[in-house]
Specification:
Bound molecules: magnesium ion
Pfam families: ADP_ribosyl_GH
CATH class: Mainly Alpha
Keywords: Hydrolase, Magnesium, Metal-binding
Shape: globular
Oligomer: single chain
Cofactor: Mg(2+)
GO molecular function, one term: hydrolase activity
Radius of gyration: 18 Å
Distance between the termini: 37 Å
Largest sheet: none
Number of helices: 17
Organism: Bremerella cremea
CATH superfamily: ADP-ribosylation/Crystallin J1
CATH architecture: Orthogonal Bundle
Number of domains: 1
């Protein structure tokens, strides 16, 4: 059955949240420990029998989606306000991120705070983990896709590798959102053509050559964007027709499991739609004020704004 565009928007946001929430259970564990505990993806998923709660990855994604749904573009001031408005420090924010958001809250120079904690700019995966709404919203506008992914990174991540990581996740989400059929070679060819650095070009080339889940670990499982963005993309490309395999295989790598599964889940959900997320997982996602129902309605709101943008663009083109 064909997946509608609205289902892709919902699938991406919910796919991200479920991946984040499940991965959050296993953050910072070693792959060896996880392999002893679980025989594979199925046993990992069967392990969950209670409510799962998302972390900072989803919370910051909500902020980004709210700004896009309201204003149709990322403006730095609105984005910072949305980060502050959504901020719950106990959701697993790193120390640097907490300091930067608290500086935003106090009206201080948050960029100065960021460069104090991350000299030269952060090249962590914090911009990539939250960028999926940009990929959805600008899936058929490459120039805006890349520029808005960059804008969404800047308040916290000014290092080129942090920004590029965000652009690549946005691009992966955009690719699967605009195409019904997943063409692996074409997907990697396009992503590699967008790379600005040799580092990402090499990593994505290696990702494109991976044939088994055992090879995924070689791409990395760390908090640096370069050590996680290609891994998430590769996991999706290995199991494009299975949401559970896509997120399960990166969670079993250990390390930064919540962010790996958030990024991989956002791509997989955009490709397969919300109905492809196993009920067993989606049904356990928290029903807090900004939980499952809110995420579904936020995705629909983002989709309506997208349609409005499309209509305005076609009027612009005709006049
Ligand atoms: Mg997290």
């Amino acid at each position: 059955m064909a997946v509608s565009l609205e289902q892709r928007f919902q699938g991406s946001l919910l796919g991200l949240a479920v991946g984040d929430a499940l991965g959050g259970r296993f953050e910072a564990q070693s792959a060896e420990h996880l392999r002893q505990r679980f025989s594979g993806v199925e046993s990992l998923i069967n392990y969950v029998t209670d409510e799962i709660w998302y972390t900072d990855d989803t919370q910051m994604t909500i902020a980004l989606a709210e700004v896009l749904a309201d204003q149709g573009e990322i403006l730095e001031e609105s984005l910072c306000a949305a980060f502050v408005g959504n901020y719950v420090p106990s959701r697993g924010y790193g120390r640097g991120a907490r300091m930067v958001i608290e500086a935003m809250e106090e009206g201080e120079d948050y960029r100065a705070v960021a460069s104090k904690y991350f000299p030269g700019g952060s090249y962590g995966n914090g911009a990539a983990m939250r960028v999926a709404p940009v990929g959805l919203f600008f899936h058929n506008d490459e120039a805006m896709l890349l520029e808005q992914a960059r804008q969404s990174a800047l308040p916290t991540h000014v290092h080129p590798l942090g920004i590029e990581g965000a652009q690549l996740i946005a691009a992966a989400v955009a690719y699967v959102t605009r195409s019904d059929e997943f063409k692996r070679d074409d997907f990697f060819r396009w992503l590699i053509s967008l790379c600005q650095s040799e580092e990402y070009r090499e990593k994505l080339t290696a990702a494109s050559e991976i044939k088994s889940t055992e090879q995924l670990a070689g791409l990395g499982n760390g908090i640096e964007a370069l050590e996680s963005v290609p891994t998430a993309i590769a996991s999706f490309a290995l199991s494009p027709e299975s949401y559970a395999e896509t997120i399960g295989n990166v969670i079993l790598l250990g390390g930064d499991a919540d962010t790996l599964a958030a990024m991989a889940g956002a791509i997989s959900g955009a490709h397969l739609g919300v109905d492809a997320i196993p009920k067993q997982l989606l049904g356990r996602l928290e029903e807090s004020p900004k939980g499952k129902s809110y995420l579904l309605s936020l995705a629909s709101r983002l989709f309506l704004k997208y349609q409005l943008r499309l209509a305005n663009r076609s009027i612009d083109e005709r006049t």
